[in-house]
Amino acid sequence: MSKKAGRAIIVISLILIAVFFVFFLRNVVVPLVRAELAGDLDAARELLREKGAFGAVSVAVVEALQMVVIFISAEFIQISAGLSYPLPLAVLLCDAGVCLGATIVFVLVRTFRFSSETYEKKRESFERLSAGSINTDRSMMLLMYFLFFMPIVPFGAVCYRGSFSKLPYRKYITTVATGVIPSILTSILMGNAARLFISSRIHLGYLILVIALCAAALFALIWFFMEKIYFRNNDGTPDSIVHTALFGLAHLLRSGRQKLTLEPGDLASAEEPFVLLTNHPSFYDFYYIDRLPFRRRTAIVVNEYYTRLPFLRRIAPRCGIIPKKLFTPDLGTVAGIMRTLKSGYSVTVFPEGRLSIDGTTYPFPEGTGGFFRRLGRDLVLVHISGAYYSKPKWRERFFRSDVTVEVRRVIKADELAAMSDAEADRAVAEGIATVGADLPSKPYRRKDLARGIERVLYRCPDCGALYSLKGRGMTVRCSACAKTSVLDGFYRFDDGTTLADRYAAIGEIERRELDSTVLQTRVAAKILRPDGKTVKQTGLCRLAGGSFTYEPDSGEGFTVPPEKLQALAFSCGEEFELYRGDDLYYFYPEENRDQTVRWAMIVDLYRRVKNES
User: Fold this and answer.
1) pLDDT number for residue 436
2) pTM, to two decimals
3) What are the helix and strand counts (H, E) for the chain?
4) Mean pLDDT of the chain
């Protein structure tokens, strides 16, 4: 058959379908759609019953219409069918309507290259779910099944996705006809339960139970399908269902609360798998990086602490996360990075190893650039700006802010190989460092910006008094020298300084007194073992001459010498922490927990002085 003849047949078929729609349009379809849009189930049920056979056919027609116009929800007509017809007939009518609509979509896309605007808005989400793995008919069919099982994804959008693939019509329509049955059946069962409730044959509690059981069954089917079939071969990688769920949750929490601007630069020139290095101003940096237009998701190196939490302990190994013991040589992390790259997945690393305390970029260990140079992969250098003040370590509340993720440089593997370790370190520092203070791009319209700021500014930068500052409203006051400073909406003080400037001034005071500084405090210690068990102790912590000592009230203590004390991780106003072997120690000062920042500052100064000498 010639192409012209084929197109003529298709056009004639579409005309017949259009006539079919018009035949039912005035008396059945329009009133039914109006009832649907108004949410009037009673009117829809009575209309279907009055029209007899025409009503039954209208179920299929309206279901097909919803397939083509994909912003209309399909659940309403399915529930209406459940209220009006026996279960087998209702399922058959809805499924026939889906197949009719799917066929129309298939013809529109394959023959006329028609594309729905609503589908185009969802295309990125579908492509991310497919994780670049749609390269066979089977994988396309599995993706369609997965999407059909999801109750929030319109059937029509799934059919547009399938039609844009190379899937043959026979396999396409078979997938459609069988894939929609669980969702249709769930909606119809809820419709039947609603009918019994409306007729007072069951109580409200039974209706709620039916709805809950239907929802649980559908989600169990989704989980089984994703776990045992669709993502079976991706377990333990960034393409796993667990990884998808975690980042989907992060997207749900952050989407709409921040304006995120992506500047991918030369990212497309990076050959996967590559290594991505970025600064670390906020907790949600892993989410911001994931929004970049990668061809394939990246594995992320994270603080091992998170992989020891009861919930994440089980799922972290299944989603491609690479754990790292902070500020401790960790051959397991090195092996994990190399293994991940070898398997074809890129790796994201935060070389600072901790969240920024003042919005600037922490120095990273010497030789970092040299290590990644020897991996023989392209290096992508990224800078995140605008995220620090959205939720700094010292503040409890989250503020809306504009965040920008900028790919500053892509260093090709051969270019990187030609560098020395020192040159590679400088390139990394220039690529990820924050220049100056990372102030908000827009002023905060709030009156409590100074609240909690004393948790990081633990010392007055003017008179040097310890723990004398108090932030309240928009002002910061020192109880020792009585000086008061006022913040503006950009987190600038009235003398023109920033939080980073004042934190640096505190550092200069501490540096002048470093040789005579001795920190000592009673602590409550919590020790996290590798097996997930927790041991609690009390004791004494001491920091002097660059050495850290812990002496428990009972049992054996330990000392970390200066050459092994790279840094001290901490939470503002709560605790400081370090590893000893495979054990993670958390130390909670019994008095004045604002001193935790000072302990970390002193360790950083010891390290800086040593590197300069």
Assistant:
1) 77
2) 0.69
3) 22, 17
4) 81
